[in-house]
Amino acid sequence: MTSAIKERPRNEVPYTLDEPAPKVLSFWDQGAFWANLGVSLFAFSGAYTVLAPDADGKPGLSIVAGIVAMVVGTAIGGLMLGLAAAPGAVTGKPAMVLLRGLFGARLSYVPTALNIAQLIGWGTFELIVIADAARALWDGVPRWTYVIAAGVLTTVLTIWPLGSVRMLRRYVTAAVMIALVYFYVQLLREPLPDLTEGSWGGFWIGADAALAVSISWVPVAADYTRHARSARGAFGAAAVGYSATQIFAYILGLLALALVAGDSTKVFDPFLGVTLGVLFFAVFVLREADQSFANVYSTAVSIQNLVPRADRRVLSIALGALITGLALLLDIGDYASFLSLIGSVFVPMLGVLAVDFFLGAGKRGTWDMSVSAPSRWGMIVAWAVGFVTYQLINPGTVSWWAGFWQDVQEAVGFSTQSWMSASLLSFLVAGLAALVIGRFAPGGDGGGRSDGKIDSAAV
């Protein structure tokens, strides 16, 4: 162990969880990292989701209404992301280790396993997106070539994660901003249709779609902010950096969608059709590797919650090979619904974590994040209440799962309303349940150490 510590660069992530996390990321390092994650090819190809499309794919919102819904949803999601980021900076612990303090060590293994499953899925999805987008630029080589190249690049980035974050700030962020501005200028010169045509019905459905994209990063936020120099910087960089660029990218995606008459399969065409479009779009394709990097690195760190002495470098290489193989073999479209279902468990979990960390046991200094942390069933109950709330409002599209919750809706006489946001309401309900349970059981459900105590000066 001693030799491993000596060999590791001082400003890089420790190889195991037994070593302390260096506090080396500035506000600007983090802001650039989150800003890059806010710009994704999915923001273009998936922009139609904020238009609240019906079962036939027909948009329920006008482009203008969709933009407003997206801005509202992203702003709320950004604040939630900031709430997930701050505890990592305060404690120096990664996201899944924080759950030891919230649920207890053994109970934290359940969400950890779910997080590993969804991150492997999203990592695979990102390699497929990169390969497909690269083929749209140039299809002169087989698709598998792009998949393998993206997998190798992703793996290399995960070996030196903090160095990769700093590299993104120095070189990639500026190129991405230039490409975004260039495409705004070019697309706004095109003859756009009437952007107000359509309704405002389903506004909160569209807002919830944008919010859900922001929330997808909640289970990994502390993996990076544990290296932040301050909790305030971690909160602000995540909340503002991510929200600003996601809004910027989604509006661009909606403009492109308007130019192709709402056909999401052709949403890349306006980018590739303008002067120098191929060159600037290539910036987005290369930058997409930071999405797969974040997924793979956080998978390795999540596994370390189960096996604290596992070397993250070995895990990263193995995971990079795994998602590359999956991207070559699988049709991710068949898995997307399950990824959405798994991801929904983390929205109410954030409500429980935020309330308990900032107002409950964490504030009292009784969080225990050791490998022997006692189980906290009260917080599990609060999480379950929020999860049920989410599923009652939005059971998803997996047929057998959605059918079950529709039966529950009928049994309890619950009817979903258009103003209901599954993400926002489940977050609030879970947080309220955690607050009530924590007040009634402040001692018996709070653990017994001060690892998670909030330093008011830091926050």
UniProtKB/TrEMBL annotation:
Designated gene of the protein: cytX
Q: This chain belongs to which protein, by name?
A: Hydroxymethylpyrimidine transporter CytX
Tell me the keywords, alphabetical order. Membrane, Transmembrane, Transmembrane helix
The record gives the membrane topology as: Multi-pass membrane protein
Stretches that traverse the bilayer: 33-51, 63-86, 107-131, 143-163, 170-188, 200-222, 234-261, 267-286, 314-332, 338-359, 380-402, 422-441
As for family, the record states:
Belongs to the purine-cytosine permease (2.A.39) family.
Provide the protein's localization.
Membrane
Under the heading InterPro entries, the entry gives: CodB (IPR030191), Pur-cyt_permease (IPR001248)
